[in-house]
Design goal:
The complex is a heterodimer of chains A (430) and B (337).
Chain A: E1 3-4, H1 19-22, E2 28-29, H2 38-41, H3 43-53, E3 59-66, E4 69-80, E5 85-86, E6 93-94, H4 99-112, E7 133-137, E8 144-147, H5 154-159, H6 172-180, E9 187-188, E10 194-195, H7 200-207, H8 225-237, H9 241-253, E11 273-276, E12 282-286, E13 307-308, H10 310-321, E14 325-326, E15 329-330, H11 334-340, E16 358-360, E17 365-367, H12 370-373, E18 382-386, E19 390-395, E20 400-406, H13 413-425
Helix pairs in contact in A: 4-8
Chain B: H1 2-10, E1 16-19, E2 22-25, H2 34-49, E3 55-62, E4 65-76, E5 81-82, E6 89-90, H3 95-108, E7 130-133, E8 140-142, H4 150-155, H5 169-177, H6 186-194, E9 205-206, H7 211-223, H8 227-236, E10 259-262, E11 268-271, E12 292-293, H9 295-306, E13 310-311, E14 314-315, H10 319-325, E15 335-336
Parallel strand pairs in B: 9-15
Antiparallel strand pairs in B: 1-2, 3-4, 4-5, 6-12, 7-8, 10-11, 13-14
Helix pairs in contact in B: 3-7, 6-7
Classes of the chains: A alpha+beta (430), B alpha+beta (337).
């Protein structure tokens, strides 16, 4: 076996890692054994370094796996620039919306147990969500709304056709309503003021009073829907959402560094979050130690609350690529994974946020037409990203998993995903 | 040549015969019938005897082996020079696939995305307008619905056209502005193109055009070098295409086939191809035309593609890139010219 451990940035890593931590470093296999060229994969080295040298990212980590073997794993740059802390192979990242696929898996585990149907109205389980109204015109006290033409279903929540929106994007008036009423998880705003819901219950209560941006089923709108799904999992399982994830997903899959809280003993592995300064360069947006992730968030956000590592997220992705099972632990049946990774958007609804040739499944975007997407990942490739520039994709046809971790907002996903695809797919040689 | 087949069949354990450096394999060893392939020879003879062509050459390969290679008629009627294994041809638009391969080699190196607007790299093309009406000083244009992308340039949906092939006032403007082989360089071609409006919104209309010349300029900009050098070092040398270039060197000039045009009376008349285009002094090394090559050289290029981007251990492209290139990138709603 031509197995060896990569040590790209290991020489620089002097942070306190326990002996057990080093075992979690993904082991890299000779790429040629799984049809990839190690020589052509080196193009990724320069690509990653450019993002750091150009001060677009403080640091980044990239893992490429094929047929269950890690063929590329590299870490460059800093976890925190000010404290001169290099990004490490076992760094912990805010994965934001990469929480959504995990929540979608949790939901489908409940589906497989017969707890609900995808076509069930959400209000059947969260009565507050009944009789929602859709925004029509005006704002503030003059806001006009109309009854929704139908109730949102669980499927709507999974594929983002619920009519819900987000406070930081979407229709100006409706998203302003979300901001004014703190319809989001607890977070520190740009002004330094902490706002947001203290529990999923509080969140659902305020959300159920908000107008919908559009009629359920009429358009793809990115939204807090996946936070609602976390609340539904609590109803169906009778467990707190954080406990459910730990007992049913993270524990069984061996995702040892994934959770809503980064515990004190792991905070030294956490990574600072960055934004652009007014005159370019990078400014720290969230500290590595003095961070909200160090304490219980109150509201367990299924749409964006988790912190994780590349090694952990790889185990989650490999479970999906394997059709729901990893190392003898089955979370989902293969037909359920197949159902989740098909395009679920009704005819006439486009998912143009990521460009042409894309659809949306139950928790993932799906490549439906590679040529129109203008990129090279196979049809059927499913993926998502996080607000701090984390991205993953899974290509079932090529059996490829890609995970990229970085901490920079707003996300650099739009150019980086197809850029990484070009550099990874050109290295396939079989 | 025809007797060659009989010869090969008679030699056991030797599947390759050499005729002027062209290895021709026994057709049957690659699942072809040498007897039925003779129909190709007859077809070629009919074309030449019937006066459709002065001469022609056909190469057929299967499973990586050349199974048929024949030449009929004249490379130069006046000089009484027959087409043979050494003949060099003006390949005109067969230049385009070579330019496209170079473009995709740079895509593989991460220089750009197919969805990138060309104006990101060629600032001259940042503000292209779409033709609405009028001519001369009265031309009215509007903003396009979206920018021209590199993918548009590769699949001919940029909204660009050709002088002499395209129709209408915009195509005429290409002629007036010299946006064709007369441009002094790819940079000049792009400069001229920037002054001509698009005929349609990018991505809505397929029309044959000189977009591969724009790709030449892109190649020059991202490699910070000449198209000619890039081709030589990264395609012609690795693929051993020794007789392919933008010009025919003096020592090979006698191998260049003349080009003929059918006259109204049915006769063939020798014509000048792209005046001066094959001399070393033609500065504009074009991406849409202008290359000369041989059947064997182009076979090596084609075999590289069929092999998924590699030939004799030299990888030019990754196999998935070749797959991506050879899928239909058009949609049913696009109009076609």
């Amino acid at each position: 076996m031509k197995k060896f451990i990569v040590s790209i940035s290991v020489a620089l890593v002097m942070t306190a890692c326990s002996a057990g931590d080093t075992d979690k470093t993904p082991e890299v296999t000779g790429p040629e054994a799984v049809g990839m060229s190690s020589e052509r994969l080196t193009a990724l080295d320069g690509y990653m370094q450019r993002y750091v040298d150009d001060e677009l990212l403080a640091g980044l980590q990239l893992l490429v796996s094929r047929r269950g073997e890690t063929v590329y794993f590299n870490t460059v740059g800093m976890a925190e620039i000010d404290s001169n802390t290099p990004m490490a192979d076992d760094s912990i990242f805010r994965i934001y919306s990469m929480t959504k696929p995990i929540t979608s898996v949790a939901v489908m585990m409940m589906y497989e147990e017969g707890k609900f149907l995808l076509t069930d109205p959400v209000s059947k389980y969260l009565p507050e969500m009944a009789k929602l109204r859709v925004y029509e015109s005006g704002e503030g006290d003059d806001m006009e709304t109309a009854p929704a033409s139908r109730e949102m279903t669980v499927q709507d929540l999974l594929r983002h056709t619920s009519g819900l929106t987000y406070g930081f994007m979407g229709h100006p008036v409706v998203s302003q309503y979300y901001r004014d009423n703190e319809i989001h998880r607890r977070a520190k705003g740009p002004d330094g003021v902490i706002s947001g819901a203290n529990s999923l219950y509080e969140f659902i209560t305020s959300l159920s009073k908000a107008p919908l941006e559009v009629d359920p089923g009429s358009a793809w709108v990115y939204s807090v829907a996946t936070d609602v799904l976390g609340a539904l999992v609590e109803v169906w399982s009778g467990q707190s959402y954080d406990v459910f994830l730990q007992e049913r997903i993270f524990g069984p899959l061996g995702m040892v560094d994934t959770g809503f809280v980064v515990p004190a003993e792991k905070l030294d592995r956490f990574t600072a979050n960055y934004a652009s300064g007014e005159e370019g360069g990078l400014i720290e947006a969230d500290d590595r130690i003095d961070t909200a992730y160090a304490s219980d968030p109150g509201m367990y956000s299924g749409g964006g609350g988790l912190a994780s590592t590349t090694a952990d997220y790889l185990r989650f992705c490999q479970m999906l690529l394997n059709g729901g099972e990893l190392d003898g632990v089955r979370l989902l049946g293969p037909r359920t994974v197949s159902l989740m990774t098909q395009d679920h958007l009704p005819p006439g609804i486009d998912m143009t946020m990521l460009g042409l040739g894309r659809g949306f499944g139950l928790g993932f975007d799906v490549v439906t037409d590679r040529e129109q997407s203008g990129s090279i990942a196979s049809n059927g490739t499913y993926s998502w990203g996080g607000a701090a520039s984390t991205i993953f994709f899974i290509d079932p046809e090529e059996e490829i998993i890609m995970i990229m971790m970085a901490q920079y907002m707003p996300a650099r996903i739009i150019p980086m995903r197809p850029e990484l695809e070009a550099l990874i797919y050109q290295a396939i040689i079989d | 040549m025809k007797s060659l087949f009989g010869f090969i069949v008679g030699v056991l354990f030797s599947s390759v015969a050499w005729a002027a450096d062209i290895p021709v394999t026994e057709a049957e060893s690659v699942g072809l019938s040498s007897e039925r392939l003779t129909r190709l020879g007859s077809y070629m003879n009919r074309q030449v005897d019937g006066g459709e062509l002065a001469g022609m050459q056909v190469l057929v390969a299967r499973q990586g082996k050349i199974a048929f290679f024949e030449s009929v008629g004249m490379a130069d009627v006046t000089a009484k020079k027959p087409i043979d294994d050494q003949t060099i041809f003006a390949i005109n638009s067969m230049t385009k696939p070579i330019t496209s391969v170079v473009t995709m080699m740079l895509y593989e190196q991460g220089h750009f995305l197919l969805t990138d607007p060309i104006g990101k790299y060629l600032l001259e093309l940042e503000d292209m307008q779409v033709y609405v009406s009028g001519k001369g000083d009265e031309v009215v244009t509007r903003l396009p619905s979206r920018a021209v992308t590199i993918q548009d340039l590769l699949r001919n949906t940029a909204g660009m056209t050709y002088f002499g092939i395209g129709q209408g006032l915009v195509a005429d403007m290409y002629g007036e502005m010299g946006v064709d082989w007369r441009a002094g360089s790819a940079a000049q071609y792009v400069d001229g193109l920037a002054k001509v409006p698009l005929i349609a919104d990018p991505g809505t209309h397929w029309e044959y055009s000189g977009t591969t010349n724009v790709l030449v300029r892109l190649i020059e900009v991202v490699t910070d070098g000449s198209f000619e050098d890039y081709l030589y070092q990264n395609i012609f040398v690795p693929l051993d295409m020794n007789n392919t270039a933008h010009y025919v060197p003096l020592e090979k000039a006698s191998n260049l086939s003349a080009t003929y045009e059918k006259q109204a009376d049915g006769s063939l008349k020798q014509v000048q191809q792209l005046e001066g285009a094959y001399g070393e002094d033609h500065a504009f090394k074009m991406g849409d035309s202008g290359m000369t090559s041989t059947a064997l050289d182009y076979f090596r290029f084609a075999q590289m593609l069929l092999n998924g981007g590699t030939l004799d251990g030299n990888r030019i492209l990754g196999p998935r890139t070749v797959v991506l290139m050879t899928k239909d990138h058009l949609t049913p709603d696009m109009t076609r010219q």
